[in-house]
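Example record used in the benchmark description.
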Amino acid sequence: MPDFLAQLRLGLAHTAKARGDWAEAAHLYGELAQPDSPSEIAAEALYWAGVGQYKATGDPSHLAATARHFESRFTDSPWAKKASVWAK
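Model output (structure tokens):
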């Protein structure tokens, strides 16, 4: 059941992103990126949380911070590879 609920919450976050509500999307993705989230959800959510924070604020440091998070979590995930371009 937790995986199903996480998938539903991921859908809500994607919906917020699609309508351009980046602050809400970043918040929802951030909740899903917590250490107790299912890893397949958390890695994607961590990536999109960083993008959402950047899009909501225009501050690129959020992208670099996301890349740093991937250095210690989900290091072999495709999401870590995508975020690696933001590493400084």
